[in-house]
Amino acid sequence: MELQKILDSYPAKKEFLLEILIDIDEQKENHFISQEEIAAVSKHLGVAETHVCSVISFYTLLSTKPRGKYIIQICNDVPCYLSDDFNLLKTVQNELNIIINETTRNNKFSLEFTACIGCCDASPAMRINHKTYTNLTRSKVIKVINDYKEGKHDWAYWVNETIW
After folding, report:
1. What total of structural domains would you count in the chain?
2. By the number of CB atoms within 10 A of the CB, which of 17, 26, 123, 147 ranks highest?
3. Same domain for 96 and 145
4. Cβ atoms within 10 A of the Cβ of 40, count?
5. Domain that includes residue 26, residue range
6. What pLDDT sits at residue 99?
7. Position 63 in a domain
């Protein structure tokens, strides 16, 4: 969907800023919001560009820099950190051959930290785009990443799986 269609689908009220930004992000395979898009959103809503940028920088789901098709976010809040007896970050880094805040050469995966994702009772946890994975073990993480690499990550596939 092009930018103007997204903007036209929302009232010109600042209350819709986050929803607009998420829509823009989700329409792009490299998950980022450009300076031109920031300016257009700012103009549409009648808010300062700095306000749009502050919202983008606050939410870890949004970015002003291109990222991979699949954004892997590792929860680095206390419960996930304490429950992580196998080193979740190192496992993901080894599977993708990248470090935190990098994107794979094929632009398929980006790896980032995020604040609490609300799964403290099922930690450690990670999120890939908008899907959250909990109660992780090294073997589950490797399976999830390999499934994304092979295109086996949609809901229909996981409904039939019993690894959780």
Report:
1. 2
2. 123
3. yes
4. 19
5. 3-58
6. 97
7. no
Q: What per-residue confidence (pLDDT) applies to 154?
A: 60
Four-residue CA torsion sign, 86, 139, 95, 34: negative
Q: What is the DSSP string of 61-120?
A: T--SS---SEEEEEE-SHHHHHH-SS-HHHHHHHHHT--TT-B-TTS-EEEEEES--S-G
Regarding whether 97 and 137 lie in a shared domain, the answer is yes
pLDDT computed for residue 139 by the predictor: 94
Q: How far apart are CA 25 and CA 63, in angstroms?
A: 8
At 132, which helix (H) or strand (E)?
strand 131-133
Question: What number of CA atoms fall less than 13 Å from residue 105's CA on the CB side?
Answer: 1
How far, rounded to the nearest angstrom, does the alpha carbon of residue 62 sit from its chain's CA centroid? 7
Q: Is residue 65 part of a domain?
A: no
Shared domain check, 101 and 24: no
- Check whether residue 79 and residue 50 sit in a common domain: no
Residues 6+ apart with CB under 8 A from 15: none
Token digits for 41? 């959103």
Distances 61 to 13, 43, 112, 136 between C-alpha atoms, Å: 22, 22, 10, 21
- Of 38, 58, 78, the residue at which a domain comes to its end is 58
Ranges of residues in the chain whose predicted pLDDT is under 70: 1, 154-164
Please enumerate in sequence order all residues whose Cβ is within 8 A of that of 120, keeping only pairs 6 or more positions apart, or say none: 77, 79, 80
Residues paired with residue 112 on neighbouring β-strands, in sequence order: 73
